[in-house]
């Protein structure tokens, strides 16, 4: 049985078909990539999986659990969707501590370890408002993986990252895959996706194809 | 057509500071005129509305309409944006949390208190020699509850219906309440029994907060 299962998923907004009859099965412990130009429906596709939008038709199941608007899946999910929403006047560490406090499953030590991995430890006491796009993006990646999340959904995660950070990021994804984590990653950059994904799908005008 | 109306409404009224300033000036002017000519006590005040016996009952009740209209133009867009601009990082960790609704509820309460402070201070200054502070306090308490209720109701309607439809439904509600001169539908139209009015409003608030929570759950985070 697949870990994520989409059956005939469709959605139209203002007469535009955002998601078109998507059928997809994603296995646990795999990295699945979605490539497509801006506005092709990648983000909306992820929002549907996260239970943030209503479907006109079709069904989405994660780990056997049906997803509907307003009820995100019970599995532990890490995500980046569009612009990372941090509190600008908090330091990097405080932002992560604040997010970690919601579930209260990890200690500061684990947060610092995740920060160390992406060379953010020296910036832990700096306020997020002083961060560049790349640093914000690293922080977003850290929050998406720091709680040992089972399912990781990343939309354009390499935006603003330098080459070394992209390499670290790719290595980390492979490591997470080996730990049986399921990863969905979308980008307009085919090279990043192809280097890490087991399966790559093309997203175009709301249609997902191999 | 609906999209054009939404845009016009947004540009002319919601995001137009000049319109808001004009409404406040009009409100103070009309209040001044009212306080010069009429009393302000439990039997005669702007919340004891004129019944819909004549065709110009809307103009007769303009002070009442402006009391609700002025804060609603300022508050609704802010709260709506606040509720719809969810932080995905937080949402994904606790999607069933009532926290956003509780926060918006708190902000609505604070805004209603501040607006009522402004409104009743203006009335008190204009009627300084003759008005009863106890009456202002009791009516002020009811108007705070009423303003909170109508703000939440419009917020629920605009979140569920999107665009201008919610606002248009509210205008219809205003006209029906004014015409029927009833205290049963959130807006205060008689002030002779303020304890009873406040009681109804508290019940409405409990229902509306639940409705807001429900509407928030059913609203897409686009």
UniProtKB/TrEMBL annotation, chain A:
Keywords: ATP-binding, Nucleotide-binding, Transport
InterPro entries found in the cross-reference section: AAA+_ATPase, ABC_transporter-like_ATP-bd, ABC_transporter-like_CS, ABC_Transporter_VariousFunc, P-loop_NTPase
SMART domains, alphabetized: AAA (SM00382)
GO molecular function list: ATP binding; ATP hydrolysis activity
Domain of life, source organism: Bacteria
ABC transporter domain location: 4-210
Keyword set includes Glycoprotein: no
Matches recorded under PANTHER family: ABC TRANSPORTER ATP-BINDING PROTEIN ALBC-RELATED
Designated name of the protein: ABC transporter ATPase
From TrEMBL, chain B:
Superkingdom of the organism of origin: Bacteria
Residue ranges crossing the lipid bilayer per the database entry: 57-79, 99-123, 135-161, 168-190, 196-216
UniProt keywords, alphabetically: Membrane, Transmembrane, Transmembrane helix
The protein's name in its UniProt record: Uncharacterized protein
